[in-house]
Write a structure and sequence with these properties.
mainly alpha
């Protein structure tokens, strides 16, 4: 079982992660910001598995709709809006519906997530070599 603090108890670490992961849902070529995103995520205290959990269960349910919009957000989500939406979603009385989250399938098939994941691991590997 994956161990991760509840989002509301870990906002200082969680918010930069939400912002970086939400970048993959912008209506633009997200590969252009991949290195920035990977660097942000590599600096986080979360493992790759925890980052994927946050992506699927916290960011995806809020940001997925931007990819369906004709006039989707392309410059970046407002950090306060993102925080409020995610926390409201996580505190929903209809928590049982979260099990219907298609992010479990779509995130694993995402080319951009796979590339970002690889870049995070590479950045962490370089960081480890620089400290030894």
């Amino acid at each position: 079982m994956l161990s991760i603090k509840p989002a509301a108890e870990d906002l200082a670490a969680r918010q930069p992660v939400w912002e970086a992961l939400s970048d993959m849902f912008l209506d633009t070529d997200t590969s252009l910001s991949r290195q920035w995103r990977a660097d942000q995520l590599a600096r986080s205290p979360y493992s790759i598995e925890q980052l994927e959990f946050i992506l699927i269960n916290e960011v995806y349910p809020i940001c997925k709709y931007n990819l369906l919009s004709v006039t989707g957000e392309w410059a970046g989500f407002d950090p306060e809006w993102l925080k409020e939406k995610i926390l409201r979603h996580l505190g929903s009385r209809f928590r049982f519906l979260h099990t219907l989250n298609l992010g479990c399938f779509t995130v694993h098939a995402s080319v951009e997530w796979h590339a970002t994941r690889h870049a995070i691991l590479a950045a962490r590997s370089i960081g480890t070599k620089n400290t030894t």
